[in-house]
Amino acid sequence: MPRIYLSMAMLGATLAIGGCNASSGAPVAAIPSAPAGPAQPNWPPLPANAACSDNLNRYQTVLTSDVSTGNVNQSVYDQIEADLMRAADACAGGRDSEAMSIIRATKVKHGYHA
After folding, report:
1. Cα Rg of the chain, angstroms
2. How do residues 65-90 score in pLDDT, each as one tens digit?
3. HSE toward the beta carbon, residue 5, CA cutoff 13 A
4. How does DSSP classify residue 29?
5. Cα–Cα distance list, 24 to 14, 15, 20 (Å)
6. Cα separation of 14 and 11, whole Å?
7. Which of 27, 49, 67, 105 is buried deepest, with most CB atoms within 10 A?
8. What is the pLDDT of residues 36-62, one digit of tens each?
């Protein structure tokens, strides 16, 4: 029950402060926009029906989301991308099992479900 009172008090305080700012005519600071996220990797063309292509693309989607939300630091993202570039090269060269092995090792190394 005390949580409800606390929530109501916080809401009331927020509204009161917001009302003061709105009626004062003072300029309101702009809220910074979220970062655009990392640039997409410059992989070679991946084979359309290879398991490594699907695996790379799924992992890249998760990574892009994680770095955009701050769940992964840019420096860690860059390390992972270096490994994934090797995997993409192997995948593009028709070495599916080598690519899958690199992807799996990278996931394990950085705490992703392999």
Report:
1. 23
2. 999 999 999 999 999 999 999 999 99
3. 2
4. P
5. 16, 14, 6
6. 5
7. 67
8. 566 778 899 999 999 999 999 999 999
Q: Are 74 and 64 in contact (CB under 8 A)?
A: no
Alpha-helical runs (H) found in the chain = 2-24, 51-68, 74-92, 96-109
The tokens describing 69, both together, are: 């939300």
Query: At 36, is the secondary structure helix, strand, or coil?
Result: coil
Per-residue tokens: 93: 């060269």
Q: Count Cβ neighbours within 10 Å for each residue of 12-48 and write b for 16 or more, e otherwise.
A: eeeeeeeeeeeeeeeeeeeeeeeeeebeeeebeebee
What's the rounded Cα separation, in Å, for the pair 74 and 96?
28
